[in-house]
Amino acid sequence: MLNEPTPHESHVVEVKPAQLISKPELGTEFVVDPIVVDGQVLRDVVIDVKRHAGQAAPKKPIPNPDLGLEFVVDEAVIDAFPVPGSRLVEGRYYGMSLWGRTAKITVELPGGEIVDYFLKAEALGDIGRTMIEGEYESLKAIHGVDPAFAPFPYAWGKYRDAQPDTYFLLAEFREVGQQPPDPKRFTARLAAMHKKSESPTGKFGFHVVTCHAKLPQITDCWEDSWEVLYRKQLAYMIELDEEKHGLWPEFQHVCRLTLEKLIPRLLRPLQSDGRSIKPCLLHGNLWDENTATDMVTRKPFIYDGSSFYGHNEYEIGNWRAPRHRLSNRKYVRNYKRVFHPSEPKKEWNDRNLLYSLRYDLATAILIPGCNQRQVVKDNMTLLCKKFCIDDLLGFKRIKSISLRNRGYDEDEEEEEEEAEEEEEGEETPDDATTLIGSDDGFGLGSKLKSIALPPHYRIGKARAYHIERT
């Protein structure tokens, strides 16, 4: 029993001012919203914030998923079994998902053969539907390119009577082994998928919305330009971050520069002056715990996809974070040996840093209290110093003028400038100039326009807009 995607109506997202905040502080732990089904709290998950803020990957190996207590299988899942007449033997919790529940479902086929299926259930209402549908379509696309590289997705659907609305994914069961897999075998398989895949339209994008964890991504559109699609995706993630954490003027400044200066500077050359890049099928969120070695075949595979067709190098952006085991240089080095960097090759590292921003910003949104917002600001600043230094440094000059107008005396202003210089590790030239700022979210001489977005992009009061220079 397969659900087909349904068209979504468009709504205009209202632009509202966000709260002004200062530099973020590092927390200690974050309790994920408890999983509640039909009034019963099934579990709480506490995330180690320092783990996601870490500057080094954990040294201990990732333990294999545990087979847990009984899992009650909904009638809608039984109806979706791929072989008619199959009988449910048992359901057991298997492993862990931060935002839902995962289980191993054992079934007896009509001929007496015993088979296992993997089940994921998201009790998150509409966003759960978007997550499940996106993962189903992602796995279907990856499996279509390389059947051994991803579990086959059999069906997705909705529980019959659960409250809140609960959506499920039923897929081929793979026994998870070593995570992440062997660097050479894994990266060779990943690069092969990137090379072999073909966008159905020849463009960048996807046919449905997919989610980074529980954050919808702007994927359900088709663009000739990779620069255009990535700018849309990063701008939307910046919007979600602003809604979650409030305004931080210095951060909003480098965000604006990233969208207006860095993305055109680093991504436009990929598709200009005779150069081109192929839209490759991406997993979309590869990190340590959605890659594994199959315990039966001993081959690497991936799961929990959030796919779209994009620049293959985007896939590697998540490996830059030192908190991931995939940040081990062996993974990047082996991947680049199989899939050589795009031209201009000398800017591969700059593009990799640019691509890491969206992953780290998503982590900042999903795990309050981690330091990833600061990491993103620092990395944006690093790129701005290299490619648009005048625009970057001018913000401090304008801020100094603003402070004087607000009645700060010279001593107060000097103390604040010294604190900022100490934070950034360098002095600011006296003659720096740039545009004047505002409180619009990205600041600095811009005006906002609401744009129509389908309802699956709406998270709380999250806003989306594009920027027009005044």
TrEMBL record:
The keyword Transferase appears for this protein: yes
Bias kind Acidic residues: ranges: 409-430
Reaction equation(s) it catalyzes: N(6)-D-ribulosyl-L-lysyl-[protein] + ATP = N(6)-(3-O-phospho-D-ribulosyl)-L-lysyl-[protein] + ADP + H(+)
The protein's enzyme class: transferase
Top-level taxon of origin: Eukaryota
Molecular function terms from GO: kinase activity; protein-ribulosamine 3-kinase activity
Positions of region (Disordered): 406-442
EC annotation from Swiss-Prot or TrEMBL: 2.7.1.172
Keyword Ubl conjugation found: no
Keywords assigned: Kinase, Transferase
UniProt xrefs under InterPro entries: Fructo-/Ketosamine-3-kinase, Kinase-like_dom_sf
Name by which UniProt lists this protein: protein-ribulosamine 3-kinase
Taxonomic source organism: Diplogelasinospora grovesii
Highest classification ranks of the organism: Eukaryota, Fungi, Dikarya, Ascomycota, Pezizomycotina
